[in-house]
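Homework-ish question, so no full write-ups if that breaks the rules, but can someone show me the predicted structure for this set?
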Amino acid sequence: MSDHATLILDGVQHELPVLEGVEGERAIDIRELRERTGHITLDPGYGNTGSCLSAITFIDGEKGILRYRGIPIEQFADAPNFVEVAWLLIFGRLPTAEQYTSFAEDLTRYANLDEGMKHHFEGFPRSAPPMAILSAMINALSCFHPELIELDDDEQFRMAAARLISKIRTIAAYAYRHSVGRPYNYPDPHLRYVPNFLHMMFSQPFDQRVCDESVRDALNLVLILHADHEQNCSTSTVRMVGSSQANLFASCAAGVCALWGPLHGGANVAVLEMLEQIHQGNITPEEYVRLAKDRDSKIRLMGFGHRVYKNFDPRAQLLGGVAERLLSGLGRPDPLLDIARRLEEIALSDPYFVDRKLYPNVDFYSGIILRAIGIPTNMFTVMFAIGRLPGWIAHWWEQRQDAAARIARPRQIYTGSPQSDYVSMAQRI
Ligand code: ACO
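A: Not a homework solution, just the prediction itself:
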């Protein structure tokens, strides 16, 4: 195969290098394009633009493949352990028993928030969106850990990463407790990552939340399946902010904001709202799908479609199975699961969805699992953020260590008015 591409512009021939990734994906390297030709490329939404070289996650959207550091995500499903996967993504290999224990102990040690930070929650209205609180509080961590703003070596980075992964669940749980007017639960050092989070969310002074094994495994898997997805909108945001040398906390806080939108992480809330609407009898699944196909309706089948996957999203397939097993194991059938299955069935036999290669994505079934665990709908995107955090951290660090990394600064094609003169206010008409 050719190792260069030929571009002919204004009759002049330019040779551009072609790069190949380890899985055979190919890219035309245009790093010198503007310097050599005076032209830029235009790619709104970046559907054809590679922003970096990365060794963290591989996706083949045509074949429905997702691998973390080379390991297919299906292999994490039998004994799901989010902390182990977080380490894998961030540090590049599965942890040894010693590394795992030490990291898990760090997560326990760092789970508390500074008491000063607790007061910030009081300032938010009860109705504040938890994603706003999450972003603000992650950013605020840099005020409480100024020693971790500059990360000079691996050890400092490890401490910052562990603090962030540990504290995000405390922040998330406190945001929820504040919204329902309940006292904050301090983290329990005897509990592991997921049970501790559920304790902080739901325990009452008179009623300790005990985490069932099936719930623990389901939530671990949900978090794992959200843990990274290469250059998605929020991860690219983290990289974009980090490229200015902004600190880890600030960069991840920006990632939370990007994730919030309904076309990204916010879709899991939109899916639940869609299913509820159908369940309440406001609209039938058939009618909903019909509206989703109608350009004028502005309705989309939420949890369907993906920029990269043009086949089944492997995360959706796993989560569909988890939803079935969890609900039947808990003896809590949920009519929303039946509605989701029905929507999937209708859409996947409709040429509109088949031709456009629109399949259920990660958000289609995740909400049903979270609902079964008792997580309120307005916390769904927060759960996504807890899961995605290791990916953001891994990308931030990969970029920070890349000697060739530059500040991210796209260009544009200007379409405004040509040069014109300033007119004083009295002379304006
Ligand atoms: N329902 C109905 N039609 C859809 C849907 C959908 N969910 N998704 C895409 N389409 C249609 C579009 O209208 C378009 O049709 P056209 O060719 O006739 O104009 C075609 O499929 C291509 O869609 P785009 O919007 O161009 O695809 P893009 O890659 O830009 O967007 C996205 C991908 C945002 C995920 C889109 O599929 C969508 O809006 N899905 C619903 C929201 C959602 O589930 N988001 C979560 C994504 S996963 C994640 O971020 C974690």
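Now go work out the reasoning yourself. Hint: The two ends are 62 Å apart (CA to CA).
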